[in-house]
Amino acid sequence: MFNVVIGTQFMEKFLFKIAKQWIAGNTVDDALISAKKAYKSKRHVIINKLGEYHTSKKQINTTMKEYEKIIGSFRRWKIRGAISIKPTQLGLSINQKEFYKNFEKIIQTARNAHVFVWLDMESSEHTDETIEIYHSFFSKYERLGIALQANLKRTEHDLRDLQKTGAKIRLTKGAYRENTRIAFKSRKGVDDNYLKLMKMLFKNGNEFALEV
Fold it and tell me: What domains appear along the chain, each with residue ranges and CATH number?
């Protein structure tokens, strides 16, 4: 299943405005139809495949082909959209070598089509690894962004470090169940931290997106 987030262009400093609408579709074609309709209405889209922790080559190869189809369709239809990928969809659950090999292919395909790629943040066990991946690939492809989660207490520190490198950030509230030691558990705690991080983005951010 795929999700399509739809927003509107806000100002040049932003990649996307605050996310306005999620639309689910069962297939790549469903997602692309939604994306095409949104773009005709002068709205921007991010297509995100649901599911994670792929451990079989078959799952990974299927996901690769689906994202490559999305990128190709964006190019063919001249849609200014983006894809959002979870590292464990491309083999990080197997090992880093498998992921890097597959993500390199996606980045090359995206570069040829001038498509923006978001690197999604997953559960906290992968946070350090995902940031490391981002640094490795951002030097090769500037149309690459990373999601950060406001529910994690460490995110303020991560955001400060990433801003120093000119990173492109998508701020989310976070959907993973985490330990109280490392995460805000109450809605107010998450909301307060989200607001704090958002202010940091407005003050010091390069290009960024807000997802609520």
Answer: 2-210 (3.20.20.220)
